[in-house]
Amino acid sequence: MNLVGKRCLVTGGAIRVGRALVELLADRGARIAFTYRSSRDAAMELQRQLSGTGVEAHALPCELSDAQDVARLIAECRALWGGVDVLINSASQFRRTPLTDATLDDWDDQMNANLRAPWLLSQAFGPQMKQRGEGIILNMLDIAAERPYPGYLPYCASKAGLVALTKGLARVLAPEVRVNGIAPGTVLWPDDYPEEQKQRTLAKTPMRGVGSPEDIAAAARYLIEDAPFVTGVVLPVDGGRLLV
Ligand SMILES: NC(=O)c1ccc[n+]([C@@H]2O[C@H](COP(=O)([O-])OP(=O)(O)OC[C@H]3O[C@@H](n4cnc5c(N)ncnc54)[C@H](OP(=O)(O)O)[C@@H]3O)[C@@H](O)[C@H]2O)c1
């Protein structure tokens, strides 16, 4: 897809990987709406920065674990543009939730933000894309969908669900709409990640080191712009971590 003038919605776009995806879309000439929850200052700064370079950019607040707030976001995008051409589900809740301590709220928050929200957004915009004859949905997954992290099972289950959703939507929305996923290994450490766990991760990564948000943006650019015959795939960008 040629991104020039395309209407793109990115969830969780204010900082980190989501921001790199927003910057990629801006660089390719797209019109952008991105959501934020707590990173209001960063979102406003990014909106200002993009608008300053002539890019149409809208920073929209949304609590994705709240279905009503997602419905409001959908209505806002429709009021803005009628629909979207590209939907990138990048926001996600990643919280340590050991089996013995995790609460029902932990489960609900992560499943709702990481899986239900992409479902609701795909349901709102996917059929419209299909009807218009063109569209792309890109979901940010995690290698942990395949190799679950023991202390993060609700998160891993939400990402495994999103893998199934990615493949299922690819079937339902073909041939007009392509639906793919990117499964990062580590490209940015979570805040407060213990040093010992970092060292363990590095030791299990054949390419050594961690990747970068730009690695994810490069994969996204390929899947959006250069892969017309690719749908329903999960592309690992993990330095080979799934190999060991
Ligand atoms: N970083 C990595 O190395 C890595 C590895 C594997 C997979 N991934 C996946 O790649 C994607 C991006 O990674 P990341 O590290 O940039 O993610 P992140 O920093 O953990 O989260 C991205 C954004 O999601 C938003 N968010 C979280 N819960 C939300 C909620 N309930 N409602 C609305 N927004 C919410 C937050 O927005 P606010 O800041 O505005 O609150 C946050 O900035 C995620 O899907 C992640 O699972 C990343």
Secondary structure elements and pairings:
Blueprint: E1 7-10, H1 16-27, E2 31-36, H2 40-52, E3 57-61, H3 67-81, E4 86-89, H4 104-132, E5 135-140, H5 153-173, E6 177-184, H6 195-203, H7 213-225, E7 234-237
Parallel strand pairs: 1-2, 1-4, 2-3, 4-5, 5-6, 6-7
Helix pairs in contact: 1-7, 3-4, 4-5
Bound molecules: NADP nicotinamide-adenine-dinucleotide phosphate.
CATH topology-level name: Rossmann fold
Helices and strands: which structural class?
Answer: alpha/beta
Strand count, sense and closure of the main sheet? Answer: 7 strands, parallel
| Overall 3D shape | globular
Q: In terms of per-residue confidence, which ranges show pLDDT below 50 for 5 or more consecutive residues?
A: none
Q: How far apart are the termini?
A: 35 Å
Q: What portion of the residues fall into strands of 2 or more residues?
A: 15-25%
Helical residue percent band: 40-55%
CATH superfamily: NAD(P)-binding Rossmann-like Domain
- Cα-based radius of gyration, to the nearest Å: 17 Å
The domain count comes to 1
Ligand names:
NADP nicotinamide-adenine-dinucleotide phosphate
Number of helical elements: 7
Which architecture name does CATH use? 3-Layer(aba) Sandwich
CATH class value: Alpha Beta
Mean pLDDT across every amino acid position: 97
